[in-house]
Design brief:
Elements: E1 2-6, H1 11-19, E2 24-28, H2 38-45, E3 50-53, H3 62-65, H4 67-84, E4 88-93, H5 116-131, E5 135-140, E6 143-144, H6 152-162, E7 166-169, E8 173-174, E9 177-178, H7 179-192, E10 196-199, E11 202-203, E12 206-207, H8 208-218, E13 226-229, E14 255-257, H9 258-271
Parallel strand pairs: 1-2, 1-3, 3-4, 4-5, 5-10, 6-9, 7-13, 11-14
Antiparallel strand pairs: 8-12
Bound molecules: NADP nicotinamide-adenine-dinucleotide phosphate.
């Protein structure tokens, strides 16, 4: 089975490359395939049995000032990829939800994104499902991995290294997810040709503050440097974030608890 990956140079894409080491894999970074080009998608993906579509505009704040660019990648790109291949897993996000829930979101919950990024990802999901009946949408959340140069985990470790106290918000709650747990689950979805919408995230929930403290503990750093703050008292950001958007699934086996995933991840993160 030949599995292609779009966005193969990204955080998830690089981990998918690892998960597909013993497969017939076609790894397409942005230089190899710009997903906004429908003819290029048809040419690059037509010969694959399955595609994991990990390419996306992921700059949540930047999307607010460049909505057409975010839409081109997240909506038209998802449509182009879904139309080009026999089977596609489209990776999506918890940011399709408004975060006003009081319990974790399952696949039947109604999306209602708060910002341009979430809106473009939601329309992209729908475009892909319409373009091809053999599509799975896999929503995940708060991704982190060992090989990433930036991202929340890396930022927290840098602040801890600097040694001065810093604030992290307590009222944004989600499902931190280790890409090394997510990537094999996406490959398994291809092998099973799962279709429909799935929530695929490490189980449990954490605030950004909880997550930052756990990062400090797992890395053997001083967690007391991390100071709780409410979003309303933190520096404003262009895009609103959902307050409470953990994911749970009624359709996909739960991934391991996020605390366990973080402990497993930390040696690789520190060694990268
Ligand atoms: N990061 C998270 O916390 C998170 C949470 C939930 C869901 N997701 C979803 O998970 C997927 C993977 O995200 P990630 O964290 O791996 O993001 P990432 O590191 O930003 O990777 C996305 C990749 O897509 C590429 N890309 C952007 N525009 C493209 C285009 N027009 N054609 C082809 N490639 C393009 C980017 O290339 P350049 O870097 O060269 O622009 C980048 O390599 C995305 O669908 C994202 O929405 C992410």
């Amino acid at each position: 089975m030949r599995i292609a990956v779009t966005g193969a140079g990204g955080r998830l894409g690089r981990e998918l490359a690892r998960a597909l080491r013993s497969h017939d894999a076609l790894l397409l970074d942005r230089r190899a395939l710009d997903v906004t080009d429908p003819a290029a998608c048809a040419a690059a993906l037509g010969g694959a049995d399955a595609v994991i579509h990990a390419a996306a505009w992921t700059d949540v704040d930047g999307a607010e000032s460049a909505p057409a660019d975010a839409r081109a990648t997240n909506v038209f790109g998802a449509n182009n990829v879904a139309a080009a291949a026999p089977y596609v897993v489209v990776v999506s996000t918890d940011f399709v939800f408004d975060g006003r829930a009081s319990a974790p979101y399952d696949e039947d919950a109604e999306p209602d994104p708060l910002q341009v990024y979430g809106e473009t990802k939601l329309v992209g999901e729908r475009a892909a499902l319409l373009a091809n009946e053999n599509v799975a949408v896999a929503r995940s959340a708060w991704l982190y991995g060992a090989a990433e140069p930036d991202g929340f985990v890396r930022a927290v470790l840098q602040r801890l290294e600097a040694g001065s106290p810093f604030e992290v918000v307590t009222d944004q709650v989600g499902s931190p997810t280790y890409v090394a747990d997510l990537a094999p689950a996406l490959v398994a979805m291809c092998e099973q040709r799962a279709t429909g919408t799935f929530h695929v995230a490490n189980s449990g929930e954490a605030s950004r503050y909880d997550f930052a403290r756990a990062i400090a503990r797992a890395a053997g750093r001083d967690e007391s440097l991390i100071v709780p703050v409410a979003t309303a008292d933190a520096p404003p950001r262009p895009a609103a974030r959902p307050a409470y958007a953990p994911l749970r699934s009624t359709r996909h086996p739960a991934l391991p608890p996020w605390e366990d995933a973080l402990r497993r991840a930390m040696p690789d993160i520190l060694g990268a």
